[in-house]
Description:
Blueprint: H1 3-12, E1 14-16, H2 19-26, E2 35-36, E3 39-43, E4 49-53, E5 55-59, H3 64-72, E6 78-81, H4 88-93, E7 104-108, H5 112-117, H6 120-130, E8 134-137, E9 145-148, E10 152-156, E11 171-175, H7 182-193, E12 195-196, H8 199-251, H9 263-273, E13 274-279, E14 283-286, E15 295-297, E16 301-306, E17 309-311, H10 313-332, H11 339-351, E18 354-355, E19 372-375, E20 378-381, H12 382-393
Amino acid sequence: MHESEVAAREQALVWRGKDYLGHSLLGRDFTLGAIRKGRTRIPSAGGKMKRKALDVVLHAHNISKKWRKFIAGATDSVTFYTPFFDFLILRLVDANIQIPRRNITVVTDFRVEVLISHPKQLTAVRKLLDQGVQVKYLPRLHAKVLLVDDRVAILGSQNFTAYARQSKEVSAGAFDLLNGTKFLRTLIGWREEAQPIDTSLVDLLVECLRSRSCQFEALVGECRRDFDEVFRQRENKRERIEKFIRNVREKAPWLSGDSIIPKELARRFVERSVWWPYHPEYGYVRAPGHAKNLYDHAVHGWAIDFGNNTFLVGRAIDRCGWHLNLCLEEASSGAIGSLDAVKAYMKYILSGAVANCDGLEYEGDYPVVDDELRFGAAIVDLTDAINFILEETGIQELFR
Length: 400
């Protein structure tokens, strides 16, 4: 088969001879190379290869109408395998079925946690038994399969319940391919292994669960209200965070890195973060006059020279903005880190925004001493620089 033909069949969701479906349904290993004209080579009992049609249809919706069609066409037997069911299975059994009720079998799991959470299941079991349908108990059953005439099947995630009809389910219908397969032998083996259930047992279980089911339903209702409140609070928090993020980005559009750092922003950054440490009377004093020396570097954007070094103001703000924008993206998905971690990384960013006299950024970080970048008679206080950027964005409110 040409590769384009394989792709076309995949798109149509009608799989004839599809390799991985063949493997999952038949317990055999197939490859695309073994597919020929919609048929697959299957090993026979003698070891020789025989040809058998493989016809599987996939569904991603409620499959109950298909169940009805399959059951109505039954000529010998119908077997339901399901851990959960309710009165829907009674309607399926009554759907114009032509075979005797004794040829219908329901194989289920009678775990107490199933029955106490689905008390209607026992009532449905009693009605099935009253109609002559066989109901059997198989521990640890989790499969959901409708087997008709021990020949064709529909299997998938959908339980035989009214609730499941509104759920998001996937199913696969296998037609005329199960005879002689390990898959079919396993299903029949489960049916034979399962223990029969009678009405006396059902009556005892109903009586045992009667009061406890009411208690369980009350507990579930209480938990559901608590869960709803948790999700409501979570949704309100998410909406507040999304609104906060929009406001931050409107206030500081340069966070995204798509816009040029404004000179006014760079000037105020210098005024807030640069100090002169040698004042004869006061020692450390702010040195806002350095902002007058701010210039637009041909490579690095806004910059200011301190002796043989250049502090890359534009780079520093832009890179801190990139990191804060990343924090906003993480917050929008519910992951909010610590403000201390954000400040620590911003300090690392600022210490790397320094170039030498040739205009080349240092390969490593510029030395940080007492949270300061020292350039002779001028210093850049990293705490002031970080606080200025946080105040310009208002992002620190996110961490409170």
